[in-house]
């Protein structure tokens, strides 16, 4: 098989985004645009993937890490100049090279694979991936001769009125004979409306040397969307969201209202789980089977077991087991680990807390830096006092403990198995196994005093 290489163009400033964030790093459904592109390319059998980076290169490299090699384009002089930066790495190699823009996040590996196949069938030196758009504004147009053979690409800004009426566009993805590409690149000039070295000019240069140039027109025009501004970014997110939601529904997940369900691309959800409207699932969230995730949930890197019901709650970087009930309005902050059959009710917040099997935190509770055993009942209003303004300390609660309502557990503190804490206690000392701990002032009743107070204030 011919060796295959890929070049991803990601050095452009992205001025039309009007952003401090580097254009290709703007996320679409939770993943930077350029990473979508590189991940799709990686599904093909590539000998090398080279990403051309510009200013802000460190950020792009940090995101892509070992998914790609990197070459820096110091000055952004155009797409042809960008590709030329890969010369040292690629120019002497035999094979085919696909070039893809880092700002076309919807492009799919199957399409690029089909492009490469078509390119070799046509024995072409260059093949452009094209599509037909109702509104081709801004894209390079494909100009064909009377026989329908591709002649060249004209950029929107350089096109005559007649050329602008052409609806077939350059998607910015190409397949080249690698050696022919680098030879032609050296002949590209910047004599055009933008004063840039245009990669599409390579097409005319190859044509002029009587090489075969082909165009592969794809049906699914949505894949071609190039994101140059925030309007296109929103459109790309909408299209990607549709794609993700449709895949999940086909895999057996019920989305009650896909139009208001926001699921990042790497999220996994098991069969027969129901996701209600207005739910956001981010990052590497994984949800098991037969769960119910109700309206208003927002999870980021949450790992949820099977048959768990979560209502209107937020979860970050945490794990939740099977048959758990959470919410409404609970907040699981990072490193919470909720074991099977736990109940976490409304207005409960956990942080770095392990909650053992069958334990209940039914309402208005804060547990931070805590380890809670099995079969524990934590009463309403109880909190772990984990922070003294300087240090965080740990609260450990054993199995079968009963924590009465409105208890303050001043950490560090250890409540052993089977202990019972009286409601309203403020505990500063460890509680031994099986003990009753009462940590509150004694009540004093002053007979007849109520009347005296009323008289005093009515004077
Ligand atoms: C480009 C194509 C256009 C095509 C469109 C598809 C050119 C001249 N035009 O236009 O025919 O229809 O894509 O979306 O190629 N980049 C660099 N270095 C540079 C300039 C750009 O790496 O010096 C990168 C950008 O980061 C971007 C990609 O190349 O990822 C395309 O550049 P952009 O300026 O967005 O080109 P378009 O005007 O969209
Ligand atoms: Ca673009």
UniProtKB/TrEMBL annotation:
Residues 231-251 are annotated as: Linker. Its cofactor is Mg(2+). The active site is at residue 363. GO terms for molecular function: glucosamine-1-phosphate N-acetyltransferase activity; magnesium ion binding; UDP-N-acetylglucosamine diphosphorylase activity. It is found in: Cytoplasm. GO terms for biological process: cell morphogenesis; cell wall organization; lipid A biosynthetic process; peptidoglycan biosynthetic process; regulation of cell shape; UDP-N-acetylglucosamine biosynthetic process. Keywords: Acyltransferase, Cell shape, Cell wall biogenesis/degradation, Cytoplasm, Magnesium, Metal-binding, Multifunctional enzyme, Nucleotidyltransferase, Peptidoglycan synthesis, Repeat, Transferase. Pathway: Nucleotide-sugar biosynthesis; UDP-N-acetyl-alpha-D-glucosamine biosynthesis; UDP-N-acetyl-alpha-D-glucosamine from N-acetyl-alpha-D-glucosamine 1-phosphate: step 1/1; Bacterial outer membrane biogenesis; LPS lipid A biosynthesis; Nucleotide-sugar biosynthesis; UDP-N-acetyl-alpha-D-glucosamine biosynthesis; N-acetyl-alpha-D-glucosamine 1-phosphate from alpha-D-glucosamine 6-phosphate (route II): step 2/2. UDP-N-acetyl-alpha-D-glucosamine binds at residues 9-12, 23, 73, 78-79, 140, 155, 170, 228, 333, 351, 366, 377. Binds 1 Mg(2+) ion per subunit. It catalyses: alpha-D-glucosamine 1-phosphate + acetyl-CoA = N-acetyl-alpha-D-glucosamine 1-phosphate + CoA + H(+); N-acetyl-alpha-D-glucosamine 1-phosphate + UTP + H(+) = UDP-N-acetyl-alpha-D-glucosamine + diphosphate. Residues 252-459 are annotated as: N-acetyltransferase. One of its GO terms (cellular component) is membrane. Mg(2+) binds at residues 103, 228. Its EC number is 2.7.7.23, 2.3.1.157. Gene3D superfamilies: Hexapeptide repeat proteins, Spore Coat Polysaccharide Biosynthesis Protein SpsA, Chain A. Residues 1-230 are annotated as: Pyrophosphorylase. Acetyl-CoA binds at residues 386-387, 423, 440. PROSITE patterns: HEXAPEP_TRANSFERASES. Residues 6-216 form the Nucleotidyl transferase domain. Catalyzes the last two sequential reactions in the de novo biosynthetic pathway for UDP-N-acetylglucosamine (UDP-GlcNAc). The C-terminal domain catalyzes the transfer of acetyl group from acetyl coenzyme A to glucosamine-1-phosphate (GlcN-1-P) to produce N-acetylglucosamine-1-phosphate (GlcNAc-1-P), which is converted into UDP-GlcNAc by the transfer of uridine 5-monophosphate (from uridine 5-triphosphate), a reaction catalyzed by the N-terminal domain. PANTHER family: BIFUNCTIONAL PROTEIN GLMU, NUCLEOTIDYL TRANSFERASE. Homotrimer. This is Bifunctional protein GlmU. It comes from Listeria fleischmannii 1991. The gene is glmU.
